[in-house]
């Protein structure tokens, strides 16, 4: 499980990347979702504040749940509570450049990753092209006997 400090990551991206100014919070979440799916991980991303009035853009993002801390709290406190509440803290990865969160993660034996390092790794992984070899049967098609079997199976015998 990966827990990410949303605004901290956005701020770090702005510092290290030119294209970052054009990344919205929703786009960031979708990119992270693709990365988590590729890595076979699940994640939670926590933003400060209440977020936009219409949060539908954050729905149905693969492998990622998005939370807003609300008025009475902040993302750091929410993330600290999630670290404390974890029943398997050694399986947690906490992404933040905030020393307070990294210390809280390490205190529970979770992995702490700076936002810049996480973003760099994410970009590297998403740039890799996965090449899948197509089965030769796809190009040559079905044999006559296979075609006959399928026609019989569907009751379309000739």
Write a compact overview of the structure shown.
With 158 residues, the chain is α/β, with parallel strands linked by helices. 47% of the residues lie in helices and 13% in strands.
Global shape: elongated
CATH class, please?
Alpha Beta
**What pattern of helices and strands is seen along the backbone?**
EHHEEHEHEHHH
CA-atom Rg in angstroms: 22 Å
Which class do the helix and strand fractions yield?
alpha/beta
Q: Treating each run of at least 4 consecutive H or I residues as one helix, how many helices?
A: 7
Strand-residue fraction? 5-15%
End-to-end distance: 55 Å
Please name the CATH topology.
Rossmann fold
CATH architecture classification: 3-Layer(aba) Sandwich
Helix content: 40-55%
Total tally of structural domains: 1
Unreliable segments (pLDDT under 50, ≥5 consecutive)? Answer: none
Q: What summary fits the major beta sheet?
A: 5 strands, parallel
Q: How many individual β-strands?
A: 5
Q: Name the average pLDDT.
A: 90
Spatial arrangement of strands, main beta sheet: 3-2-1-4-5
Describe the 3D structure:
Helices cover 47% and strands 13% of the residues. By secondary structure, it is of the alpha/beta class. It has one domain: Rossmann fold (3-Layer(aba) Sandwich), CATH 3.40.50. A 5-stranded parallel β-sheet has the order 3-2-1-4-5, with helices on both faces. Strand 4 (93-95), helix 4 (99-107) and strand 5 form a beta-alpha-beta unit. Helix 2 (25-39) packs across helix 5 (115-127) and helix 3 packs parallel to helix 4 (99-107). The N and C termini lie far apart (55 Å). The model has no long low-confidence stretch (mean pLDDT 90).
